[in-house]
Amino acid sequence: MLGLDFSILTPEAISVLVEGMLVSLKVAGTALVVGLIWGTVLAMMRLSRFRVLSLFSAAYVNFFRSMPLAMVLLGFYLVVPQLLKSLFWVPQTMDTRMLSALIGFALFESAYYAEIMRAGIQSIPKGQLAVSYALGMRPMQAMRLVILPQAFRNMLPLVLMQL
After folding, report:
1. Radius of gyration of the chain from Cα atoms?
2. Is 108:28 a contact under the CB 8 Å cutoff?
3. Which of 64, 67, 118, 134 is the most exposed place for a label (fewest CB within 10 A)?
């Protein structure tokens, strides 16, 4: 008869598992928050009339979406600590490995969130923007108060799938 043997779960093993879970939640939470914010900025840059912003955003998204996550994390693991130590005074007690993982995951996920946000913004009917202008809103006000809230609602299922 197959049974589960929980005798190997000593207090030390449980504490290690809980510590690992907290690290995973920290990395995932940071990637989600920073990725959504930077992804929204990238999506708005991609939809911008300014060619330089649009090209930068497109290049960023295409670069990170074409790279495997393992390669991005390895690159950040090897480059970011050296870069931080050479550009800034970094205390020896600072865990640059964790910072590298946080930055790598956040930048990688932001490329995917940028495409999700761009699709969400483009799903809003053009009449919504016209009505907000008719009410006297400036373009950034219209984006912040009218377009983005509706876009977030439209793209919420895709964001939950990306987690």
Report:
1. 21
2. no
3. 134
Cβ distance 106 to 38 under 8 Å? yes
pTM: 0.82
The pLDDT tens digits of the residues spanning 86-143 come to 787 767 677 778 888 888 999 999 999 999 999 999 999 999 999 999 999 999 899 9
Residue carrying the six token digits 């919504």? 128
**Nearest residue to 116 (alpha-carbon basis) of 30, 37, 43:** 43
What is the predicted pLDDT for the residue at 84?
A: 74
Residue matched to tokens 């504490």:
15
3-state SS string over the chain?
CCCCCHHHCCHHHHHHHHHHHHHHHHHHHHHHHHHHHHHHHHHHHHCCCCHHHHHHHHHHHHHHHHCCHHHHHHHHHHHHHHHHHHHCCCCCCCCHHHHHHHHHHHHHHHHHHHHHHHHHHHCCCHHHHHHHHHCCCCHHHHHHHHHHHHHHHHHHHHHHHHC
